[in-house]
Amino acid sequence: MANKTLGIEPSLYNYLLSVSLREPEILSQLRAETAQHPMAVMQIAPEQGQFMALLVQLIGAKKTLDIGVFTGYSSLVVSLALPADGRVVACDVSAEFTSIARRYWQKAGVADKIDLHIAPAMETLDQLLAAGAAETFDFAFIDADKSNYDGYYERSLQLVRPGGLILIDNVLWSGSVADPQIQDNRTTNIRALNEKLHQDQRINLSLLPIADGLTLAHKK
Ligand SMILES: C[S@@+](CC[C@H](N)C(=O)[O-])C[C@H]1O[C@@H](n2cnc3c(N)ncnc32)[C@H](O)[C@@H]1O
């Protein structure tokens, strides 16, 4: 399998998967179908999905946010880890990408748990806040456009309860964040957010070198 975790040899990566990945068949099918998609690289790695499911179960999450759906891997893996009355509010701008996600949610029997908003995620998050949903979410996964990452983080921080967890994907951005020569917008946005989170006393923090880098921000 293509190695998505930075800095790990393919043989070791395959070993890691061979002794730890417990991917349900429906997620394997989604991954196989997405592998044919021209934007397949956007999908999260399976071991990251399994880790996210574990975190959802560890914190007893019921109400979650998925910011950036694509073909649905993160929303599906989280919804499968939620209890029967769990919910995912899913945000994406693409009806085309998410039509694949919808098909898999149906097939997996979790479509009723997922409320998809086709709109810029910032608008959806602002609507949730305006509707009084602050501190009602347990878990948020941020994986949409990198230019808005800080806005997604600030809104997620308002929407999750104290003790809730925010996960931010691609925080190592294929290593670009550590190269001062690279100054494009997406890299500088991610770099700025990483530096801000380092100092942010509203959260407990951990940045894991899993896949393309995953930050865990635990709201105090
Ligand atoms: C990296 S992909 C998400 C991958 C997904 N989490 C998964 O597990 O496969 C990023 C997604 O963000 C969506 N996106 C881009 N800009 C957006 C915006 N302003 N609001 C909401 N979604 C956006 C894209 O359409 C794309 O599907």
UniProtKB/TrEMBL annotation:
GO terms for biological process: methylation. The keyword NADP does not apply. It holds the Pfam family Methyltransf_3. One of its GO terms (molecular function) is methyltransferase activity. PROSITE patterns: SAM_OMT_I. The keyword Lipid metabolism does not apply. Keywords: Methyltransferase, S-adenosyl-L-methionine, Transferase. Its EC number is 2.1.1.-. It is an enzyme of class 2 (transferase). PANTHER family: CAFFEOYL-COA O-METHYLTRANSFERASE 3-RELATED, O-METHYLTRANSFERASE-RELATED. This is Class I SAM-dependent methyltransferase. It comes from Anabaenopsis arnoldii.
